[in-house]
Amino acid sequence: MAVTLLGLGTMGTAIAQSWRAAGIKPTVWNRTRKSPEDADTAAAAVAANQLVVTCLLDDDSVTTVLDDVDLTGKDLVNLTTSTPEQSRDRATWATERGARFLDGGIMAVPPMIGTPAAFVFYSGSPAVVDDHRDVLAVPARIHYVGEDPGHAALYDVALLSGMYGMLAGVTHAFALLRAEDIDPTTFAPLLVDWITTTTGSAHDLAHRLTTGDYTTNVTSNLGMQAAGIPTFVDTAKSQGVDPRLLMPYFDLMAQRAAAGKSQEDTAGLVDDLR
Ligand SMILES: NC(=O)c1ccc[n+]([C@@H]2O[C@H](COP(=O)([O-])OP(=O)(O)OC[C@H]3O[C@@H](n4cnc5c(N)ncnc54)[C@H](OP(=O)(O)O)[C@@H]3O)[C@@H](O)[C@H]2O)c1
User: Fold this and answer.
1) Pocket test for ligand 1, best of 5, 56, 120 (most atoms within 8 A of CB)
2) What fold does the segment set 4-154 form as a domain?
Protein backbone atom coordinates (compact mmCIF):
# COMPACT_ATOMS: atom_id res chain seq x y z
CA MET A 1 0.00 0.00 0.00
CA ALA A 2 2.93 2.36 -0.73
CA VAL A 3 2.84 4.78 -3.64
CA THR A 4 4.70 7.73 -5.08
CA LEU A 5 2.72 10.47 -6.81
CA LEU A 6 4.37 13.00 -9.11
CA GLY A 7 2.15 16.00 -9.79
CA LEU A 8 0.00 17.88 -7.30
CA GLY A 9 -2.15 19.93 -9.63
CA THR A 10 -5.92 19.94 -9.17
CA MET A 11 -6.22 16.29 -10.15
CA GLY A 12 -3.08 15.03 -8.40
CA THR A 13 -4.15 16.76 -5.17
CA ALA A 14 -7.56 15.07 -5.30
CA ILE A 15 -5.92 11.68 -5.88
CA ALA A 16 -3.49 12.21 -3.00
CA GLN A 17 -6.36 13.20 -0.71
CA SER A 18 -8.31 10.06 -1.60
CA TRP A 19 -5.32 7.91 -0.64
CA ARG A 20 -4.83 9.76 2.63
CA ALA A 21 -8.53 9.33 3.43
CA ALA A 22 -8.06 5.59 2.86
CA GLY A 23 -5.08 5.46 5.22
CA ILE A 24 -2.40 5.38 2.52
CA LYS A 25 0.28 8.04 2.90
CA PRO A 26 1.68 8.73 -0.59
CA THR A 27 5.19 10.03 -1.16
CA VAL A 28 4.53 13.14 -3.20
CA TRP A 29 6.55 15.51 -5.34
CA ASN A 30 5.49 18.59 -7.27
CA ARG A 31 7.54 20.97 -9.43
CA THR A 32 6.34 23.80 -7.18
CA ARG A 33 6.61 22.54 -3.61
CA LYS A 34 3.19 22.34 -1.92
CA SER A 35 4.15 21.27 1.60
CA PRO A 36 7.30 20.84 3.71
CA GLU A 37 6.64 17.07 3.67
CA ASP A 38 6.98 16.85 -0.12
CA ALA A 39 9.99 14.99 -1.50
CA ASP A 40 12.88 17.29 -2.48
CA THR A 41 13.26 15.86 -5.97
CA ALA A 42 11.34 13.65 -8.36
CA ALA A 43 14.24 11.17 -8.19
CA ALA A 44 13.94 10.93 -4.39
CA ALA A 45 10.17 10.40 -4.62
CA VAL A 46 10.59 7.68 -7.27
CA ALA A 47 13.28 5.93 -5.22
CA ALA A 48 10.89 5.66 -2.24
CA ASN A 49 8.39 3.19 -3.74
CA GLN A 50 7.96 0.57 -6.44
CA LEU A 51 4.64 2.05 -7.59
CA VAL A 52 5.08 5.47 -9.22
CA VAL A 53 2.02 7.38 -10.43
CA THR A 54 2.37 10.46 -12.63
CA CYS A 55 -0.42 13.03 -12.95
CA LEU A 56 1.22 15.89 -14.82
CA LEU A 57 0.00 18.46 -17.29
CA ASP A 58 0.92 16.70 -20.53
CA ASP A 59 3.22 14.14 -22.12
CA ASP A 60 6.12 16.61 -22.43
CA SER A 61 6.04 17.30 -18.71
CA VAL A 62 6.37 13.55 -18.01
CA THR A 63 9.55 13.51 -20.10
CA THR A 64 10.84 16.64 -18.36
CA VAL A 65 10.26 15.17 -14.91
CA LEU A 66 11.41 11.58 -15.47
CA ASP A 67 14.02 11.61 -18.25
CA ASP A 68 17.00 11.59 -15.87
CA VAL A 69 15.38 9.51 -13.12
CA ASP A 70 16.30 5.84 -12.52
CA LEU A 71 13.16 3.78 -13.18
CA THR A 72 14.76 0.35 -12.90
CA GLY A 73 12.34 -2.12 -11.27
CA LYS A 74 9.58 0.50 -10.96
CA ASP A 75 5.92 0.17 -11.91
CA LEU A 76 5.06 3.39 -13.72
CA VAL A 77 1.37 4.31 -13.95
CA ASN A 78 0.84 7.40 -16.10
CA LEU A 79 -2.46 9.19 -15.47
CA THR A 80 -1.37 12.18 -17.55
CA THR A 81 -3.74 12.71 -20.48
CA SER A 82 -2.08 11.68 -23.73
CA THR A 83 -2.78 10.48 -27.24
CA PRO A 84 -2.71 6.72 -27.97
CA GLU A 85 0.59 7.21 -29.85
CA GLN A 86 2.17 9.09 -26.95
CA SER A 87 1.07 6.31 -24.58
CA ARG A 88 2.58 3.59 -26.80
CA ASP A 89 5.83 5.57 -27.06
CA ARG A 90 5.79 6.09 -23.29
CA ALA A 91 5.41 2.32 -22.77
CA THR A 92 8.48 1.65 -24.95
CA TRP A 93 10.36 4.46 -23.17
CA ALA A 94 9.49 3.02 -19.73
CA THR A 95 10.36 -0.55 -20.73
CA GLU A 96 13.76 0.59 -22.04
CA ARG A 97 14.37 2.08 -18.60
CA GLY A 98 13.57 -1.19 -16.83
CA ALA A 99 10.05 -0.28 -15.66
CA ARG A 100 6.70 -1.99 -16.14
CA PHE A 101 4.15 0.42 -17.63
CA LEU A 102 0.43 1.04 -17.26
CA ASP A 103 -1.35 3.94 -18.90
CA GLY A 104 -4.48 5.52 -17.44
CA GLY A 105 -7.18 7.85 -18.73
CA ILE A 106 -9.10 9.49 -15.89
CA MET A 107 -12.85 9.64 -16.49
CA ALA A 108 -13.67 12.11 -13.74
CA VAL A 109 -13.19 15.67 -12.66
CA PRO A 110 -11.34 16.26 -9.37
CA PRO A 111 -14.46 16.50 -7.09
CA MET A 112 -15.54 13.04 -8.34
CA ILE A 113 -12.27 11.40 -7.25
CA GLY A 114 -12.92 8.89 -4.46
CA THR A 115 -16.63 8.63 -5.33
CA PRO A 116 -18.28 5.64 -7.04
CA ALA A 117 -18.85 7.69 -10.22
CA ALA A 118 -15.15 8.04 -10.99
CA PHE A 119 -13.30 5.50 -13.09
CA VAL A 120 -10.01 5.22 -14.94
CA PHE A 121 -9.41 3.41 -18.22
CA TYR A 122 -6.19 1.44 -17.85
CA SER A 123 -4.17 -0.36 -20.50
CA GLY A 124 -0.72 -1.88 -20.61
CA SER A 125 0.82 -4.31 -18.13
CA PRO A 126 -1.90 -6.50 -16.54
CA ALA A 127 0.61 -7.46 -13.84
CA VAL A 128 0.82 -3.84 -12.68
CA VAL A 129 -2.96 -3.78 -12.27
CA ASP A 130 -2.94 -7.08 -10.37
CA ASP A 131 -0.05 -6.13 -8.09
CA HIS A 132 -1.39 -2.67 -7.19
CA ARG A 133 -5.15 -3.10 -7.44
CA ASP A 134 -5.77 -2.08 -3.82
CA VAL A 135 -3.98 1.26 -4.25
CA LEU A 136 -5.14 2.06 -7.79
CA ALA A 137 -8.81 1.38 -6.98
CA VAL A 138 -8.96 4.00 -4.21
CA PRO A 139 -9.25 7.22 -6.27
CA ALA A 140 -11.42 5.66 -8.99
CA ARG A 141 -12.74 2.33 -10.24
CA ILE A 142 -10.35 0.36 -12.46
CA HIS A 143 -11.58 -0.30 -16.00
CA TYR A 144 -8.83 -2.29 -17.72
CA VAL A 145 -9.11 -2.36 -21.53
CA GLY A 146 -6.20 -4.56 -22.54
CA GLU A 147 -2.45 -4.81 -23.03
CA ASP A 148 -2.12 -2.28 -25.87
CA PRO A 149 -0.83 0.75 -23.91
CA GLY A 150 -2.56 3.10 -26.36
CA HIS A 151 -6.07 1.81 -25.74
CA ALA A 152 -6.77 3.59 -22.45
CA ALA A 153 -6.04 6.93 -24.14
CA LEU A 154 -8.14 5.91 -27.14
CA TYR A 155 -11.16 4.99 -24.99
CA ASP A 156 -10.69 8.21 -23.02
CA VAL A 157 -10.64 10.41 -26.13
CA ALA A 158 -13.54 8.48 -27.67
CA LEU A 159 -15.79 9.02 -24.62
CA LEU A 160 -14.86 12.69 -24.41
CA SER A 161 -15.47 13.09 -28.15
CA GLY A 162 -18.99 11.72 -27.65
CA MET A 163 -19.44 14.21 -24.84
CA TYR A 164 -18.28 17.17 -26.95
CA GLY A 165 -20.65 16.21 -29.77
CA MET A 166 -23.48 16.11 -27.22
CA LEU A 167 -22.43 19.48 -25.79
CA ALA A 168 -22.39 20.99 -29.29
CA GLY A 169 -26.05 19.98 -29.65
CA VAL A 170 -26.88 21.32 -26.20
CA THR A 171 -25.19 24.63 -27.05
CA HIS A 172 -27.19 24.93 -30.27
CA ALA A 173 -30.46 24.03 -28.54
CA PHE A 174 -30.07 26.76 -25.90
CA ALA A 175 -29.04 29.27 -28.61
CA LEU A 176 -32.30 28.60 -30.49
CA LEU A 177 -34.32 29.69 -27.45
CA ARG A 178 -32.16 32.66 -26.53
CA ALA A 179 -34.14 35.24 -28.52
CA GLU A 180 -37.44 34.14 -26.94
CA ASP A 181 -38.93 34.60 -23.52
CA ILE A 182 -38.22 30.98 -22.54
CA ASP A 183 -36.53 30.22 -19.23
CA PRO A 184 -33.43 28.05 -19.85
CA THR A 185 -33.91 26.38 -16.47
CA THR A 186 -37.38 25.08 -17.40
CA PHE A 187 -36.04 23.89 -20.76
CA ALA A 188 -33.00 22.08 -19.33
CA PRO A 189 -34.88 19.09 -17.81
CA LEU A 190 -36.67 18.51 -21.13
CA LEU A 191 -33.36 18.56 -22.97
CA VAL A 192 -31.66 16.23 -20.47
CA ASP A 193 -34.53 13.71 -20.64
CA TRP A 194 -34.52 13.79 -24.45
CA ILE A 195 -30.76 13.34 -24.74
CA THR A 196 -30.83 10.55 -22.17
CA THR A 197 -33.53 8.74 -24.15
CA THR A 198 -31.83 9.15 -27.50
CA THR A 199 -28.32 8.06 -26.45
CA GLY A 200 -29.65 4.50 -26.24
CA SER A 201 -29.46 4.45 -30.05
CA ALA A 202 -25.68 3.98 -29.70
CA HIS A 203 -26.38 0.31 -28.83
CA ASP A 204 -28.26 -0.20 -32.09
CA LEU A 205 -25.53 1.61 -34.00
CA ALA A 206 -22.87 -0.62 -32.44
CA HIS A 207 -24.87 -3.70 -33.37
CA ARG A 208 -25.12 -2.52 -36.98
CA LEU A 209 -21.38 -1.78 -37.15
CA THR A 210 -20.74 -5.32 -35.90
CA THR A 211 -23.08 -7.04 -38.34
CA GLY A 212 -22.60 -4.66 -41.30
CA ASP A 213 -26.38 -4.54 -41.70
CA TYR A 214 -27.36 -0.88 -42.08
CA THR A 215 -30.79 -1.40 -43.65
CA THR A 216 -32.87 -3.93 -41.67
CA ASN A 217 -35.57 -2.50 -39.39
CA VAL A 218 -34.56 1.10 -39.99
CA THR A 219 -37.13 3.43 -38.44
CA SER A 220 -35.58 6.83 -39.29
CA ASN A 221 -33.77 6.42 -42.58
CA LEU A 222 -31.14 8.79 -43.95
CA GLY A 223 -33.40 9.99 -46.77
CA MET A 224 -36.06 11.14 -44.31
CA GLN A 225 -33.47 12.74 -42.03
CA ALA A 226 -31.69 14.50 -44.91
CA ALA A 227 -35.04 15.88 -46.09
CA GLY A 228 -35.44 17.44 -42.64
CA ILE A 229 -32.15 19.35 -42.73
CA PRO A 230 -33.67 22.60 -44.15
CA THR A 231 -36.09 22.67 -41.20
CA PHE A 232 -33.13 22.84 -38.82
CA VAL A 233 -31.15 25.33 -40.91
CA ASP A 234 -34.13 27.63 -41.55
CA THR A 235 -35.18 27.54 -37.88
CA ALA A 236 -31.65 28.44 -36.82
CA LYS A 237 -31.55 31.33 -39.28
CA SER A 238 -34.93 32.68 -38.23
CA GLN A 239 -33.80 32.56 -34.58
CA GLY A 240 -30.58 34.39 -35.49
CA VAL A 241 -28.41 31.36 -34.72
CA ASP A 242 -25.32 30.24 -36.63
CA PRO A 243 -25.89 26.54 -37.49
CA ARG A 244 -22.15 25.79 -37.70
CA LEU A 245 -22.17 23.25 -34.85
CA LEU A 246 -24.72 21.05 -36.65
CA MET A 247 -23.66 21.48 -40.29
CA PRO A 248 -20.78 18.95 -40.43
CA TYR A 249 -23.09 16.14 -39.30
CA PHE A 250 -25.88 17.28 -41.63
CA ASP A 251 -23.44 17.47 -44.57
CA LEU A 252 -22.29 13.90 -43.90
CA MET A 253 -25.91 12.67 -43.78
CA ALA A 254 -26.88 14.51 -46.97
CA GLN A 255 -23.85 13.18 -48.86
CA ARG A 256 -24.54 9.57 -47.95
CA ALA A 257 -28.25 9.86 -48.69
CA ALA A 258 -27.41 11.41 -52.09
CA ALA A 259 -24.98 8.54 -52.76
CA GLY A 260 -27.88 6.07 -52.96
CA LYS A 261 -27.89 5.08 -49.26
CA SER A 262 -31.10 6.87 -48.30
CA GLN A 263 -32.71 3.67 -46.96
CA GLU A 264 -29.88 3.15 -44.46
CA ASP A 265 -29.70 4.17 -40.86
CA THR A 266 -26.86 6.46 -39.66
CA ALA A 267 -24.29 3.70 -38.94
CA GLY A 268 -22.72 4.15 -42.39
CA LEU A 269 -21.64 7.68 -41.42
CA VAL A 270 -19.03 6.06 -39.21
CA ASP A 271 -17.48 4.46 -42.31
CA ASP A 272 -17.67 7.72 -44.28
CA LEU A 273 -15.64 9.53 -41.62
CA ARG A 274 -12.71 7.17 -42.14
N1 LIG B 1 -8.72 18.45 -13.91
C2 LIG B 1 -9.52 17.67 -14.60
O3 LIG B 1 -10.76 17.88 -14.71
C4 LIG B 1 -8.96 16.45 -15.28
C5 LIG B 1 -9.83 15.40 -15.66
C6 LIG B 1 -9.30 14.26 -16.27
C7 LIG B 1 -7.94 14.19 -16.53
N8 LIG B 1 -7.11 15.22 -16.15
C9 LIG B 1 -5.69 15.12 -16.48
O10 LIG B 1 -4.90 15.09 -15.29
C11 LIG B 1 -3.63 15.69 -15.56
C12 LIG B 1 -3.36 16.76 -14.50
O13 LIG B 1 -4.44 17.70 -14.59
P14 LIG B 1 -4.66 18.81 -13.48
O15 LIG B 1 -6.08 19.22 -13.55
O16 LIG B 1 -4.07 18.38 -12.17
O17 LIG B 1 -3.76 20.00 -14.09
P18 LIG B 1 -3.12 21.24 -13.33
O19 LIG B 1 -3.92 21.60 -12.14
O20 LIG B 1 -2.87 22.26 -14.37
O21 LIG B 1 -1.71 20.65 -12.81
C22 LIG B 1 -0.67 20.38 -13.71
C23 LIG B 1 0.43 19.67 -12.96
O24 LIG B 1 1.51 19.42 -13.88
C25 LIG B 1 2.69 20.05 -13.36
N26 LIG B 1 3.51 20.50 -14.48
C27 LIG B 1 3.10 21.21 -15.56
N28 LIG B 1 4.12 21.39 -16.43
C29 LIG B 1 5.20 20.81 -15.86
C30 LIG B 1 6.55 20.66 -16.24
N31 LIG B 1 7.01 21.14 -17.41
N32 LIG B 1 7.39 19.99 -15.42
C33 LIG B 1 6.93 19.48 -14.24
N34 LIG B 1 5.66 19.56 -13.82
C35 LIG B 1 4.81 20.23 -14.63
C36 LIG B 1 2.20 21.18 -12.50
O37 LIG B 1 3.20 21.57 -11.60
P38 LIG B 1 3.16 23.05 -10.93
O39 LIG B 1 2.20 22.96 -9.77
O40 LIG B 1 4.56 23.29 -10.53
O41 LIG B 1 2.68 24.00 -12.02
C42 LIG B 1 1.02 20.48 -11.81
O43 LIG B 1 1.47 19.59 -10.82
C44 LIG B 1 -3.70 16.27 -16.98
O45 LIG B 1 -3.06 15.41 -17.89
C46 LIG B 1 -5.20 16.34 -17.24
O47 LIG B 1 -5.52 16.25 -18.63
C48 LIG B 1 -7.60 16.33 -15.54
Assistant:
1) 56
2) Rossmann fold (3.40.50)
5 lines ligand 1 (CB under 6 A): no
Domain boundaries, the chain: 4-154, 156-273
The predicted-structure confidence for 147-181, as pLDDT tens digits, reads as follows 999 999 999 999 999 999 999 999 999 999 999 99
Atom of ligand 1 nearest to the CA of 80: 45
Average pLDDT, the chain: 97
- d(CA 46, CA 68) in angstroms, rounded, equals 11
- State which ligand 1 atom lies nearest to the alpha carbon of 58: 45
Residue type for 98, please?
G
Under the phi-then-psi rule, with left for phi > 0, alpha for psi from -120 to 50, and beta for the rest, what region is 19? Answer: alpha
- The amino acid that residue 131 corresponds to is D
Domain 156-273 has CATH 3.90.180.10: no
